[in-house]
Amino acid sequence: MKMRIVVIGANAAGAKASSKAKRINPKAEVTLIDRGAFISYGACGIPYFVSDTVADVKELMSTAVGVVRDAHFFKKVKGVTVQSGIEVTGIDRESKVVQLLETTTGQSSSLGYDRLILATGSSPFIPAIDKVGLPNILTVKSIEDAELLKNCAISGDRACIVGGGLIGLETAEALQKKGMQVTVIEMRDQLLPGVLEPEMAYLVEKHLRQQGVTVMTGCAVTGFIGNTTVEAVRIGGQELPADLVVLAPGVIPNVGLARNAGLDLGVTGAISVDARLCTNDPAIYACGDCCETNHLITGAINYDILIGAKFYHAAPANYP
C-alpha cells in the first residue's frame, strides 16, 4: 500500500516539503492542501509588486523560467496533487484523518494520511488598539493584501507604516516609489530590531531619511482616528495625519489546528518540534512559520516570531 502524505499549507514551506517528500519516496501519494486560491507564491516579493517593480502578480508564483506554479505544474512536474480552496477544520490523530471543508460550497469531506505535515504559516499580528479595523488599515501577507495595497497606494497621499522590521521597510520603499509620503513608526529605539546591531540600523535609518522617508523610533501607536477611513495615527498625545496605514509589527504562528489536535506548543506559542521537525505525534511534522526553530550556532530557540506580540502585550495562548 502506498504511503499517504498530506501537507497542509501550500506556500513556501508546504510546497517545498511536498516536493521533497515525493522526490524521496516517488511511490508515495502526496497531497498538498490550501484554503486560499493562490499557492506557492513569494511573499517576500509582494512589496515589489506594489511598487510596480514586479509588473504582474503571476511573477510572484512563477519559476525562474516563467512557469506559473499552479496545481497543473505541481501535478505534472512534482507529482503532487494540489487541493486549493479547501480548509482543514480538524485532525483526528487516532484515526489519522483530516477533516476538510470546501470554502466555496461548504461541502465537508475527509482525507486519510500516514504522515501529516503542518505548514500553516503565520498571520500578521493585529494590535488591539482603538479603531484598528478601519478599512484603509492594511497588512502585507497575502496576494490579496498585495492587490488591495497596490490599489490604495495613491501618489501624494500620506502612508504610515507601523513597524520598522523587514516587512515594514520593504513596504515603505514600495509606497515611496509609488509617490506616497511615507512615515515609519517603530516602538523600539532602532529599525530592524532583532536583525541588525544599532550601528548598522543607524545606517539604514540614515538611508531611508535620505530617500525622503520619515522615521520615528521609540514611538508607540496608541490608536487611530477616523470614522469611515483612517485620518490620523495617534502616538501618545500626538496625532500624525495618514490616508493609509500598513500594520507590520510582526507575525504570529497559525497554531489553532495543531492546538485543537492536542499537539504540543513551545514557549514561543509556536508548534514544538524536534531536530527532525517532528511534533509530539510521530506521524505529524511541522515546518515554516508555524513551528519553533533553533539558532544554528547557539541551539537556543529563536524568539523572532514573538517580536510584535511581545511588545504589544499579547500572550502566546491567544495566538490563532
What does this structure look like?
By secondary structure, this protein is of the alpha/beta class. It folds into two domains: 4-123 and 251-318, 3-Layer(bba) Sandwich (FAD/NAD(P)-binding domain); 126-247, FAD/NAD(P)-binding domain (3-Layer(bba) Sandwich), CATH 3.50.50. Helix content is 22%, strand content 26%. The protein is built from eight helices and 18 strands. The protein has helices spanning 12-24, 46-50, 71-78, 143-152, 166-177, 198-210, 256-260, 307-311; strands at residues 4-8, 29-34, 81-84, 86-92, 97-102, 108-112, 115-118, 122-124, 137-139, 158-162, 181-186, 214-217, 223-226, 230-235, 238-241, 244-247, 251-253, 284-286. The longest helix has 13 residues, at 12-24.
CATH class of the largest domain: Alpha Beta
Query: End-to-end span in angstroms?
Result: 36 Å
State the low-pLDDT regions, or none: 305-320
Helix content: 10-25%
Biggest pleated sheet:
5 strands, parallel
**What's the pLDDT, averaged over the residues?**
91
Could you spell the SSE succession in H and E letters? EHEHHEEEEEEEHEHEHEEEEEEHEH
Could you give the order of strands across the largest sheet? 3-2-1-7-18
Task: Report the CATH superfamily of the largest domain.
Answer: FAD/NAD(P)-binding domain
Provide the CATH topology of the largest domain.
FAD/NAD(P)-binding domain
Compute the number of helices. Answer: 8
Which strand-content bin applies to the residues? 25-35%
Sheet/helix structural class: alpha/beta
Shape by Cα distribution: globular
Strand segment count? 18
| Named CATH architecture of the largest domain | 3-Layer(bba) Sandwich
Rg computed from alpha carbons, rounded to a whole number of angstroms: 21 Å
Count structural domains.
Answer: 2
